[in-house]
Write a structure and sequence with these properties.
Helices cover 27% and strands 31% of the residues. The chain is built from 3 helices and 8 strands, in the order H-E-E-E-E-E-E-E-E-H-H.
Length: 145
């Protein structure tokens, strides 16, 4: 009887573990020189995802990258190479603010909200951004508040 219970518990645990990884999604954001009337933009300014989802930033147009400038506590800095696709698996919930290093003053920023957790929003509001990114960040933060 004890062995049967142990096997059942182990089976349930393994099922939950595997299903949580099987349900992880990959989201794609394009790095672009132009989208409509906007210049130097990510195809998505704000994206909400689940914990363990991955985002791929596609280098559609040359000269762009992704650099985290605000993220939850305990997340290491992330900066991709210029003109290269970038991938990041989001294992910690919270709000992540990122920018294109060469075009940060032109408003090339974005937000990833992981697990619908906005507990670090005050920290994100204090991140220094420049040029057009100041106005855009205020607009993005207002849209998620």
């Amino acid at each position: 009887m004890f062995l049967t219970k142990s096997v059942s518990i182990l089976t349930v645990f393994l099922y939950l573990l595997v299903s949580s990884f099987a349900n992880a999604e990959n989201h794609t954001i394009d790095m672009l020189n132009k989208l409509g009337k906007e210049k130097m933009v990510y195809s998505e300014k704000v994206i909400s995802i689940k914990v363990n989802d991955e985002v791929t930033w596609k280098s559609v147009d040359k000269g762009h990258n992704v650099e985290f400038i605000g993220m939850p506590k305990g997340v290491s800095k992330f900066k991709s190479k210029i003109s290269k696709d970038a991938n990041f698996k989001f294992t910690k919930p919270g709000v992540y603010l990122y920018q294109c290093t060469p075009h940060k003053a032109m408003g090339m920023i974005g937000l990833v909200i992981v697990g619908d957790d906005k507990s670090n929003l005050d920290k994100i509001k204090k991140v220094k951004v420049y040029g057009k990114s100041k106005k855009l960040l205020k607009k993005l933060l207002k849209s998620i508040s």
